[in-house]
Amino acid sequence: MDISIDFMRRIAHAAAAETLPRFRSQGAVANKEQGSFDPVTEADREAERVIRALISAEYPDHGILGEEHGSENISSRHVWVIDPIDGTRAFISGLPVWGTLVGLTVDGDAVAGMMSQPFTGELFYANASGAHYEGPGGPRRLTTRKTTSLAEATLFTTTPALFKGDARLRYDLFERQVQLARYGTDCYAFAMVAAGSVDIVADPGLKPYDIVALIPIIEKAGGVVTTFEGGPAERGGDILAAATPELHAAAMAALRG
């Protein structure tokens, strides 16, 4: 099925009405994970609430999986996967590299998705017509870079500290093979793969709502998204995105050691 850009814009605008007024407002932050720090804010919860309401009104038979409000009807062939603020740590730090992620799976495959960054006024989305951008500089079709060599690649990861044990050693060797490595930016780094500014993102331990929306955006722009082992990324896990199939293969081999 196709999802109209008008519906994606409606989702983006509704979520922005909840997130932007609370951004850089010094609001309360709760911790979801005892013994660690997994922040959640009122903006997370309220943005997901309005997104779910729009989806339920438009597609009442579809399922929904959200980070903050759980799942409903996920036995449906069509399931929407929501992360109202991907990058809550950036959000509470005042950094505009968070985004609202909403993706649609059909029989488990990600077929449409959007990433909205309302502070910068950007919308990255993919539907049956391809991968597209709206924002500063005007609308355009998204296309990945044609990089095939690690030596010419720009790599992002949230932080190397997420790689544990031998995986950290393999990551460090991998990073030394690329031209430029940068850290952080959560979903924004994946969007930059689709936009042709970043070549590789390697992030371990992602949840479905961290990646489902981004899969069709990257794939329809010409890139590849899988687990580190080459499996489907829709269920999350250790996720590798790359601008070209050749670069993806080289990065996957490097991460395996």
From TrEMBL:
Gene Ontology molecular function, alphabetical: histidinol-phosphatase activity; inositol monophosphate 1-phosphatase activity; metal ion binding
Superkingdom of the organism of origin: Bacteria
Pathway where this protein functions: Amino-acid biosynthesis; L-histidine biosynthesis; L-histidine from 5-phospho-alpha-D-ribose 1-diphosphate: step 8/9
Record keywords: Amino-acid biosynthesis, Histidine biosynthesis, Hydrolase, Magnesium, Metal-binding
Family: Belongs to the inositol monophosphatase superfamily.
CDD domains registered for this protein in UniProt: Bacterial_IMPase_like_1 (cd01641)
UniProt-listed Pfam families: Inositol_P
EC number(s) reported in the record: 3.1.3.15
NCBIfam families according to UniProt: his_9_HisN
Name of the protein in question: Histidinol-phosphatase
SUPFAM superfamilies with a match to the protein in the record: Carbohydrate phosphatase
One record GO biological process: signal transduction
First-level EC class: hydrolase
Cofactor requirement: Mg(2+)
Regions crossing the membrane: none
UniProt catalytic activity: L-histidinol phosphate + H2O = L-histidinol + phosphate
Residues that coordinate or bind Mg(2+): E67, D83, I85, D86, D210
